[in-house]
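Bumping with the actual sequence this time:
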Amino acid sequence: MDKVRNTKIENIKKSLKFIFLNNKTTRKEISEYTNLSNSSITRVINYLMANDFILKSNKINESKYGRKSEMLMVNKNKLRIFVVDIDVNTTMFGEGYFDGTVDLLKTIPTPDSFDELNSIVKSYISSLNKDFFYISYSIPGIVDIGSKRIKDTPNLKWKDFSYNSLIKNDDIILDNDSNLSILAEKIRSEDMKDKKNAIFILIKEGIGSGLLLNDEIYRGFSFSAGEIGHNYIFGEKIKFEHFIDFERNYEKTIDTIALNISYAINLLNLEKVIIGGKIINYPAVTFRELKKRIQKYTYVNNDNVDIRVTEFNYVPASMIGACVNGVIKYIDNI
């Protein structure tokens, strides 16, 4: 009996995750993905609808004969996630939903300590009078996602903090901001659906990167993969992220960023490079020049790599990723 029940639950999870990842889909597409029979799919869909996980949308023509099929989508309001996006100078709060979207709520100066930030978060959530299932943090540093431990945030000097709950048991999710950015792009950007090897370069007060390798986010042995900002600049005796200054040293800044990105492309044979953070606030000519230099420094066999700026602007990719992180955890724990 337990085996039958477990199989049913796994079918529900698999189907629901497929609907979430595809925004809108049909019963036929779910059946093709899960290899479940029509009757099994009907039972799964009925359960998901009865428990408000999904909604029906407008019907579409699914064949040349004009047969129409209902579109299925997740119920945005089924889940609320409080998103906290931390940067060196400012921290943004957002309300995330079951469809992976985020509404910005408030921006505050980043406190001196993580304890102080948590106190502010707890008080602010209480003032909203809303039920949040998770609090999902985007951290500018190294995070052990298994133990929920902030190992190090070099620019904030936060080290060795572990948190398991804030408003209720097991409600906190922590991950690195660059990892969350590549997660957001992978899940929500159409041109990333078929990409398995990509990098998100996040240029803020520090510089980090999120790596997608063989279709999985790669965190490394000690969760510090992608810390590209800690590379030393040859002849300068200074870290990459401390060398960058678009205002006072534009040419060398562009060149240094291009060189470091080309190193990653040549090392990992990447398909896609996405750049986010400060770069999106500069004129388009800045990115065009950066792209040209990356292509110049990249090994000829890797010259077909696609390079673009992030598609997320008003709501940063790291916030979308933090919300998506919560949604996936929620589905996995049904």
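The tokens above came from a reply further down the thread. The two ends are 18 Å apart (CA to CA).
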